[in-house]
Amino acid sequence: MRGLVIKNTGSWYTVRTENGRTIESKIKGNFRLKGIRSTNPVAVGDHVQIDVNAEGTALITEIEERRNYIIRKSQNLSKQSHILAANIDQAFLVVTINHPQTSTTFIDRFLASAEAYRVPVILLFNKTDLLDEDELYYQEMMVNLYETIGYECHQVCAVETLSGGRERLDKLMPLLKDKVTLLAGNSGVGKSTMINHFIPDADVRVAEISDVHNLGVHTTTYSEMLMLPNGGYLIDTPGIKGFGTFDMEPEEITSYFKEIFHFSKECRFNNCTHTHEPGCAVLKALENHYIAASRYESYLSMLEDKNDGKYR
Ligand SMILES: Nc1nc2c(ncn2[C@@H]2O[C@H](COP(=O)(O)OP(=O)(O)OP(=O)(O)O)[C@@H](O)[C@H]2O)c(=O)[nH]1
Ligand SMILES: [Mg+2]
Ligand SMILES: [Zn+2]
Q1: What are the tens digits of pLDDT across the range 12-28?
Q2: What is the number of helices (H) and of strands (E) in the chain?
Q3: Ligand 1 in contact with 204 (CB < 6 A)?
Q4: Which one, of 231, 240, 290, 238, lies nearest residue 266 by Cα?
């Protein structure tokens, strides 16, 4: 029987079959996936074949080829990765200027990873209601930067407050229709709060207000796919801390930073790493402020990973 994996906790996978039943399933013992060293061989969003047994549970016997996936480094095992979700149409990267602060390195590394798997990303700047004037100004600059590079951005607020958000979350509804959308971001930025807004019966757990400053506590601990009332799916994910880069060559990393890639075409050398080479058009663009220093630093951080084979 064919089904869609909608949730994964430990070794159990919840599979929704084509006739709408949900069946708790396990992976068939000798089942291994080629190529990916992942802590979860099957991920939320995977299409699978299952064999239902007499007890009403099932074995996953086959996984269909993935269109794409989003991966992060595993929490404990430094060399292994964890697939957050597979077969997604787009990702909403939820970021906050403060409470907690999302680093530009984190944003850029997520964007680069998504480029690598050809997943379109929309940036949601959340908790706009908590920002003071200076922080709002900074947020505007960030929006300006990412819009210029080519990413759609929205400044939102996921809770009802007197001051209100810049934009109502409802305005994002049309973007979700009939699509599989992954919500990603650091812990505490408001992913689950948004899910509860879009899907009122979802009732996923969100952090207590008092826990907000308690960084490092993950409220959501597994990925879960939830059906939107008007068609489409949202995937709630646990907060991500960092990304691996999986042996990308400098040319590849360059191509995942859209504006750096744009200028790199004018570099004197084909194999320019844009760090020290004479005639480097990227360094020149950086000097002329056509490339933001924060973006260039994120690019360097990914190059360093490549050099020491480290994750961060
Ligand atoms: N003031 C304000 N608080 C918000 C907003 N969005 C979310 N929160 C609060 O921020 C806290 C964290 O929200 P969650 O939705 O649990 O965050 P999360 O991204 O799902 O976090 P993890 O599950 O740990 O990855 C909760 O107390 C929310 O009520 C917002 O726009 N403004
Ligand atoms: Mg959550
Ligand atoms: Zn160069």
Answers
A1: 999 999 999 999 999 98
A2: 8, 13
A3: no
A4: 290
The 10 Å CB-count burial string (b at 16+, else e) for 241-278 is: eebbbbebebebbbbbbebbebbbeebeeeebbbeeee
277 lines ligand 1 (CB under 6 A): no
- Nearest-atom number in ligand 1 for the CA of 237 is 25
Q: How far apart are CA 227 and CA 45, in angstroms?
A: 12
Ligand 1 atom nearest the C-alpha of 217 is 24
**pLDDT, tens only, 44-82:** 999 999 999 999 999 999 999 999 988 876 555 456 677
CB atoms within 10 A of CB 45: 25
Residue 212 CA, ligand 1 centroid: distance in Å = 7
Residue 144: C-alpha distances to residues 123, 133, 138, 248 (Å): 12, 17, 10, 28
Ligand 1 pocket, residue 227 CB under 6 Å: no
**Ligand 1: does its nearest atom lie under 6 Å from the Cβ of 155?**
no
Residue nearest to atom 8 of ligand 1 (CA): 190
